[in-house]
Amino acid sequence: MIIIKNYCILFDKVSTGIIGFDKTIDMLRLGDNVVWQVDSAEDYRHFVKPFIRQGREDKRKIVYMRFSDQESLLDDTNGVKIYDLNANEGFESFGTKVHDIITEEGLEVFYVFDCLSELLRDWHSDLMIGNFFKITCPYLHELNTVAYFAIMRNTHTYATIARIRETTQVLLDLYQIKGEYYVHPLKVSKRYTPAMFMPHRSKDEEFLPITSSMDLSAIFKNTSIQEERMDYWDRIFKDAKDTLFLSQLEQHKTKNILISLLIGRERRITTLAKKYFTLYDLLNIHNRQIGTGFIGGKSVGMLLARKILETDGEESLNRKMELHDSFYLGSDIFYTYIVQNNLWKLRTKQKKISGYFKYAEEMRQKILTGKFPENIREKFQQMLEYFGQSPIIVRSSSLLEDNFGNAFAGKYESVFCVNQGSPQQRYEEFANAVRTVYASTLNDDALAYRLKRGLFYKDEQMALLVQRVSGDYHGDYFFPHIAGVGNSSNIYVWDKNMDVDAGMLRLVFGMGTRAVDRIIGDYPRLVPLDKPEQTPLVYYEDEGRFSQRKVDVLYLKNNNLTTEPLEKIMTLDIGTSKDLFAKQDDMAMKRMKELGIQNKQMYILGFDKLLKESTFPCVMKEMLRLLSDKYDYPVDIEFTANFTAEGDYKINLVQCRPLQTKGLGKAVEMPVIKEVKDCFFHFSGNFMGGNVRIPVDYVVLVDSKAYIELPQDEKYNVARVIGTINSELKDQKVMLVGPGRWGTTTPSLGVPVRFAEICNASVICEVAYKSGSLMPELSFGSHFFQDLVESDIFYAAIFDGYENVIYNPNYLMDSKNYLEEILHKEASVKDVIYIAKTEGLEIYSDIVSQKVICK
């Protein structure tokens, strides 16, 4: 029987509740974390009970952190506050909840935690057990608490135990041998007794040190130092390999377990994964994974789409597919990086709504300068040795990304690593790319996106997809021949005879960056796949002006992504016929000659021969149809294609996700316009958003002439004011009308707002202005397009001055400007920004007639 000593606390000394134990370790101290390494929960319980009883006698506040399905550690819960926690919610939610409880409970509390090894049931990773201990124990120590923990012997890796030993104040080995308990202190911080670190036999009220070699060898003869144990995660996959030789039923059970570990929990995605992935597929994914945890939405989408095409596609389609050899950085590395660099407390503050934006920039900057654990660095080096000097791209693949309902299009970074130079240079380039993607989880647009879409409280753990860049070396440059975005539903058609279900492409030459982003002065080729030769119905005077004129490429000499003029790239040997993509620009060459410039070749990237004479449009149409059919949902893909000298080609599918659409909507009865003065605007085509009838409460209009005359720094100020208006009118139906492109990075081409500064608008209009380059760019398929669709924002491009286009700003601007009233102060931009408060104003659109009216 254990005798409990009833004596007062001396200074910061605290009793374990056992007389002999207190003498052995010179009592506990306020701030101690006590970790017991045990063989069973029952052994741990044996020493928890006296600790709790002593706490009651000393009138301590006692808290029991309960998260195990096993029997409670406490028979008597009188005076104990119990928190039932759910580890299945994930590391971040669980860790944050524990942190909040500790904060609320305050100083000098006694804690008992269920056995930490139980967390493996939900987290499946020793790495994350170590992370949890690393973030929790220092905080408990800081608040002068005393906390009991336990871990199961021979369960965790030595690396995990080492992290626990490093962090805790007291580490104890507990054995039960022939009915007797032996406690072997391995670490006792800031105190010492002559026999402290000898094994002790717990007998009655005493703890007796075992000093005799004869006794010690008899007791521990069956105990040995074992080889390094595998992480629990790796053991699961090792055992899974053995089921490859068992029955289909056993393989099916194992496959479902691995899907829950690698793929995630979103029902529609996991249903597809269970249908298409085999157990062998999942084991192959694990073989190319670095770290533990989910592989994230982008990786899942890419792998799933490829598997669908491989399984259900015709042989002719599969022959056109380029293989991939990607790697996946598990989502747990992200948290390990945060913990390793002592950023968890700051992250906890940032995750509160009060600190959501306040601490984001500080957190982002610290992520950019952090260090990776040694074992992760070694895995990175091995991966880079595999790729050699092939260019690679590090892509975000967060848990919520590329999912049904949330595309996160363009919210997170993707970073090209040209991958030239020494091994150390290539490692540093890659490590910086990983840091950059991690830091992008805290940029303003990503934060605003999560907040607006109700994802504030969800874990947004960042996994990464590392892909070999598709393409080839052409002189000092590396690039694919073509790249682009594909949508299986072309609901923003510009011709009533087009088939919505045929899909469309946004096609560029070179790197695909110019297909997903709105690029200064450049226009990708929009390809309706039922009529690939047809271009959008717009009033372009010059085909060359509204085509792609620059090419994004990887420049090997400078080790970076750069942009070159099309004419320069066309001087290279690109390994295939250039007239597949480009044709000579006769009008431009004629003008050159008139100016005295001879022998200069000019091109238009129209992709005419590719679209007229190759099977490429048909193959892309079939690919999109099949993926959409199997997803039972419209899809959005990113792709590249490379051509041989004979004109054959391979398509590399690099991304696939559900395409967020709201459909065409029901037909709208359009109002009749008798005179120009009767409406704000009226035109045909150049809109996105289907059939709508939207009431408008406020119109925020940026005057084109006044804006273009502003100095550049004041144009940025206009963008920031728009952001303030966006917040002030967030509960109203607002139409934004401005010159050129909303969201451009170049003020001379439009208003340089971030999407977070216009996200609350109901309608966005871009107005062409004849002076300068203020020209809308129809954004079908771009990241901006995804933002508009997901935010349910109607878009229209107003080509003022063109035939059959009515644009009448005086329809609204003759009334009061509400700018200063809404800003609650005098505004320096009052001559540039005009806000009309409207009554009865509505915008109408009709897909069939392609009409847009606002009156």
What report would you give on this structure?
- With 855 residues, the chain is an alpha+beta fold.
- Strand 8 (170-177) and strand 9 (180-188) form a beta hairpin.
- It is globular.
Search tags:
855 residues, alpha+beta, Rossmann fold, Dna Ligase, domain 1, 5 domains, six-stranded mixed sheet, 29 helices, 38 strands, 22% strand, globular
Shape: globular
**What is the overall pLDDT average?**
88
User: In percent, how helical is the residue content?
Assistant: 25-40%
Question: In what order do the strands lie side by side in the largest sheet?
Answer: 5-4-6-7-3-8-9-10-11
CATH-level-2 architecture of the largest domain: 3-Layer(aba) Sandwich
Q: For the record, what is the CATH homologous superfamily label of the largest domain?
A: P-loop containing nucleotide triphosphate hydrolases
Quick summary:
Keywords: Kinase, Pyruvate, Transferase. Helices cover 33% and strands 22% of the residues.
Topology diagram in text:
Layout: E1 13-14, H1 19-25, E2 28-29, E3 33-38, H2 41-57, E4 62-66, E5 80-84, H3 91-105, E6 110-113, H4 120-123, H5 126-142, E7 146-152, H6 158-167, E8 170-177, E9 180-188, E10 200-203, E11 206-209, H7 213-219, H8 232-242, H9 248-262, H10 267-276, H11 279-287, E12 289-290, H12 297-312, H13 315-318, E13 327-329, H14 331-340, H15 344-350, H16 360-367, H17 374-387, E14 392-398, E15 414-417, H18 423-439, H19 444-452, E16 462-468, E17 472-474, E18 477-479, E19 482-487, E20 504-509, H20 513-516, E21 525-528, E22 550-555, E23 560-565, H21 566-569, E24 582-584, H22 586-594, E25 603-605, H23 608-613, H24 616-631, E26 635-643, E27 649-658, E28 681-684, E29 687-688, E30 692-695, E31 698-702, H25 704-708, H26 712-728, E32 734-739, E33 763-767, H27 783-790, E34 794-798, E35 806-807, H28 810-813, H29 819-823, E36 833-837, E37 842-846, E38 851-854
Parallel strand pairs: 3-7, 3-8, 4-5, 4-6, 6-7, 12-13, 31-32, 32-33, 33-34
Antiparallel strand pairs: 1-2, 8-9, 9-10, 10-11, 13-16, 14-15, 14-16, 17-18, 18-22, 19-20, 19-26, 20-21, 22-23, 24-25, 26-27, 28-35, 28-38, 29-34, 30-37, 31-36, 37-38
